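HOLO CASE FILE
Compound: GDP-alpha-D-glucose
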Amino acid sequence: MAKADLVIVANRLPVDRVVGGDGQPGWRRSPGGLVTALEPVMRANDGAWIGWPGGTETGLKPFKEDGLQLVPVSLSEEDVEEFYEGFSNGTLWPLFHDLVAKPEFHREWWDAYVRVNRRFAEKAADVATEGATVWVQDYQLLLVPQMLRELRPDLRIAIYLHIPFPPTELFQQLPWRRQLLEGMLGADLIGFQLPGGAANFVRLVRQRVGHKTHRDRVYLPDGRIVRAKAYPISIDVEGFEELARSESVQARAKEIREALGDPETIFLGIDRLDYTKGIYARLRAFGELLSEGDLEVGRAMFVQVATPSRERVEQYRILRDDIDRLVGRLNGDLGQIGRPAIVYMHTSYPREEMAALYLAADVMVVTPYRDGMNLVAKEYVACRFEGDGALVLSEFAGAAAELKQAWLVNPYDLNGMKAALLEAATADPKEIGRRMRAMRKTVTENDVKHWATTFLEDLTELGDGEALEVETAE
Ligand code: GDG
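Model generated. Tokens follow.
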């Protein structure tokens, strides 16, 4: 296996297993924002990407796909249940999202988390060249930095948390709180979406582990200094705008509006079907606006795309049923022939269709109870190259810190949300344009390339400078 100077370690590989026309299994790129961001630096540094390919296939060898070196880590059925669905998505996910759902604490899940994290760390230790840079991603792999440092003290190690880092009061519930903090402290640089998350982390380390801290620095007894800083993630702005400007996407956007019966106002929600995203509350708010006569069926319509997600986890099944029932009830009570109140799709679409939906919408509604960033909000802004379109955005999405000109709402406040939906739908086009142009400026100046380069530049500048320079590709 070829070794690499830059190693990305993420829960998932950026490919999905597919069966080709000839019946042979192959791979298809799953074009997430993270791959787009990291691809140029990966290519410039002979990068490798370590991750789970999905499924429970074993014996997969490292392979090259479209010039990227991909290194699969296998998970057994038990690992998937206990590490992925269990500790990652049944314990950490709800705990880190302000207990929107109740986290479960099971010792077997923790054991699996340790076991699988070790597998990822060992793989990274195999793949990295002497002095290489290893960048670990997200909440599924919080123990990897420390495990890897023990195996390979020569490496420069970083971790980035894509979800919020919770307030100390919540984090302290975790029976394994100290181990997780120490796991993360194996990194030289720990990246968070927002300064608040970084501050929560530093405070906890001081209180719980007893290390000295100063601002964004943690001083370890062995003399090492760890930095905890915010790097708000973004999207491939140019890519989305280009897509939105293409004739086919514009034609498709028109077609979507026509197919919906050319309503005056199309509200749009696009989310993974997740209880953190506030889908239920926003549909209820819309339903009340219709039933109270503030909006009219046919003239206003809500299009909600909910991408299937974590379908074997109990809380996700319950949510799906709840939303099915609400949509059914609202359409049953309020819809008319050919004019439903809500058009609901439980499916995922190609990027082109997403861009067409963004263009077809008048009001984008993003109302999570808690969200690390929320890329959908930024994608909507990137697609609105004509400077129109309104955004209703939860204060509790990381994106609210940058997209200040959105109609900001508290998703727990149903009346407040109703008022904001109505205001955004009836706002003066000048006002909408003023807000959108300001948001477009922010998003354009802070795209995902900027995110990846600043993170990697900071990482290279840290410490003694002996580690290999990471070239940031143009
Ligand atoms: C986590 C954090 C943070 C969705 N449906 C389809 C589709 N998507 C794409 C969207 C967007 C992405 O998935 C979702 O990103 P979000 O940021 O909205 O949310 P999470 O999945 O929860 O992501 C979040 C993010 O990590 C990055 O750090 O912002 O806070 O929770 O890009 O466009 N893409 C396609 N078809 C779909 O049906 N092609």
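CASE NOTES: Residues 33, 162-163, 233, 270, 272, 307, 348-351, 354, 371-376, 379 surround GDP-alpha-D-glucose (CB under 6 Å). The CA atoms of residues 214 and 271 lie 38 Å apart.
CLOSED: yes
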